[in-house]
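User: Before I run my own analysis I want an independent prediction to cross-check against. Here's the chain; please return only the structure tokens and, at the end, one sentence I can use as a sanity check.
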Amino acid sequence: MEVCFGNPADIDRWMHLVDEVRENFPGLETEKDRDMHRLTVLKFMEKRQALCAKSDDRIQGVLLFSRKRNRICCLAVSPESRRHGIASGLLETALGELDRCRDITVSTFREDDEKGTAARALYRKFGFVGAELTEEFGYPNQVFVLRGTPGKIEFRKAGLSDAELLIEIYNSAFSDDYIRYGTCPAYGKTKEMMERSIVNYPKFLILYNGRPVGSVSCRETESGMYEIGCLCVIPEYQGKGIGTAAMEFIKGHYQNWKRITLVTPADKTENVRFYTEKGGFGIQSFEMDGCVKVARFILERTGRQAVDTRISASKEQEERLAD
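Assistant: Structure tokens:
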């Protein structure tokens, strides 16, 4: 038995298993429901969030999971293949793909439902505990939770040997920007371009529990004056305080800093909110970077009073750019 990611070539065999067990899964009662589920499975396959257990070219078990929601979405094993460790193998593999530092959830049958006896025992074996009662497709369910443990954030100076790793991180972190604006200097760099950037713009890899998940780059433009060129975290690790930790790292690493500046697209409200509310930056000005309007942020060691006086003036400049 092999646990692997499913692909579109597996869809017919996958759905054959679904047909074997669909009477026990609310939301699959009609042919329309089945067709919608087939499309859902294909989408999960595209995202490498669909696992299957194969043996002799036959799919014996399937599992869907969501990295974004940190959730087990669906787990099923063919009736004739149960009690052979297939469900455990699928679940163990899925947990390795999810963020163990956050709570992982799954919805299954309630305690008094005999259809869920085996499922509840499986999740408890892996450390899940029962939580709130809920309903799915009008059927009574219960959420089970595997509690996460706090993550460890570390920083390591990047070298030329990290160029390909940084390209992978940048492309993951900035793909949405490239799609949104049609251009993004951080996206699609060649190895040679990244190596030059590492030399000209010192970079630090951000490690989360030992895994590279982001990068921050910063250089001194003149004595005590620093410019952050890039601060990025791959999407599935955002919202964990990593960006805030990176800002604190920069301020601690460059101890002689007097002023730190950076730019970000002006219409990315989540970035603007992060730098102003979490980082303590103020907006110094607005400018055009090619076809993208960006906001220039500034943080001064003497406090934000000097910055605040610039904001009102920058609003006039913003209005001119908007005209």
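Sanity check: The chain has nine helices and 14 strands.
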